[in-house]
Amino acid sequence: MLDIKFIRENAEVVKDAIRKKHLTLDLEELLKVDAERLAVLGKVETARARQNVVSQEIVKASPDARTKLIAEMTALKAGFKLEESNLAEVMKRWQTLMLQVPNLPDVSVPEGADEKENQEVQVWGEKPKFDFKPQDHVELMLKLKMVDFERGTKVHGFRGCFLQGAGADLSWALINYAREFFGRKKFVPFIAPTIIKREYFYGTGHLPREADDLYKTQDGDYLSGTAEVPMMAYHADEILSADELPKQYLAFSPCFRREAGSHGKDIKGLIRVHEFFKLEQLILCSADHAISATLHEEVNRNYEEFLESLKLPYRRLLICGGDLSLSKVKQYDTEIWFPAQGVYREGSSASYYHDFQTRRFNIRYRGPEGKTLFAHSLNCTAVATPRLLASLVENYQTVDGSIIIPEVLRPYLGGQTVIGHGSSA
């Protein structure tokens, strides 16, 4: 959330952010409602002040004067109640509009209307060259009894699956390797809750725009689609000290997404499922653009180094304005190569937010001179399975349908080197 004072003083800058992100918010309407809010708030504060004065005068007044003052107090209370009601109505409209104000995109964010105009800025690794037609991960894993889609659909429904045998072991190996890999980079490990209070999804910016993609509980809470939400809520309404920053967390959680709007897309296999497991990098740092931008590059490189250690080819995309969500300053997507389909598919997303999220969560810190400032936040995927698992299987397949286990994962699988027919990890 942007500071309303900043919005008032930089309306044209905010309008340009709305334009660049291809949003439809009428900023003039917000400014109009804000002026109305300030006017009503002034009346409420004036009425409250007068009530306090009259209350004090009643105590000291003579009987005749007290009668008049009590009559005035009765009228003041009626007027105050009306103004409070007006303020509540104005505040509701004001808050609705404020939630639609986007964060300002970085100057390096390219113009563009949608994902088709995201820019490829880096490519790494040699795509595997097979002297046979590569199979996709569904064929490979079914033949190796690594996954059961039929029973998954029976038990869960559409997009359901059971990872089994070597599929389950290889998934655990990826998670355990990632835990150690990112732990060496001084991230504090967490296992985060998944059922999260509704207000915290507004804090991260997932609500109201992504409501259709969230699973809702009978109590009005939601199941999180990323550990970003609980880890931002972890420090809600806290004041940290400057020497605590940056705080670097590596959070594991199950994740749930309805995949609303993706009907007919990637319906086969493990690419787009309703529930998965993820390790998320999350950082809170001091309110300095240069520090945020530097850490953003670092967390993104962490993920790319992780892929490089697995020898998985990838490319990095710089997300354009029209595909950049309301809350973000800048975003990279790192996509992994899927040889059977001949395409790159998203493996991670790295974003930074300045104080957009921390204002909503009220996460502050005391600077060197004792001044209280809102921290900056950023996050990036560390590992998400089973999508990464699917890419690994396709890239490491052999002519007989076996899967070579990447060298860095072998210690987590008892030294096993191949998943073949009749073998198990």
Mean pLDDT: 93
Tally of contiguous helical segments: 12
How many structural domains?
Answer: 2
CATH topology of the largest domain: BirA Bifunctional Protein, domain 2
Give a quick account of the main beta sheet: strands, pairing sense, barrel closure: 8 strands, mixed
The number of strands is 18
Can you list the strand order of the major beta sheet?
Answer: 1-11-12-13-16-10-9-4
CATH class of the largest domain: Alpha Beta
Which keywords apply here?
39% helix; 3-stranded antiparallel beta sheet; 12 helices; 2 domains; alpha+beta; Helix Hairpins; BirA Bifunctional Protein, domain 2; 425 residues
Describe this structure in words.
There is one protein chain. Helices cover 39% and strands 21% of the residues. The strands form five sheets. Strands 1-11-12-13-16-10-9-4 form an eight-stranded mixed β-sheet. It contains twelve helices and 18 strands. It folds into two domains: 95 residues, Serine-tRNA synthetase, tRNA binding domain (Helix Hairpins, Orthogonal Bundle), CATH 1.10.287; 305 residues, 2-Layer Sandwich (BirA Bifunctional Protein, domain 2), CATH 3.30.930. By secondary structure, the protein is of the alpha+beta class. A hairpin with a 4-residue loop joins strand 12 and strand 13.
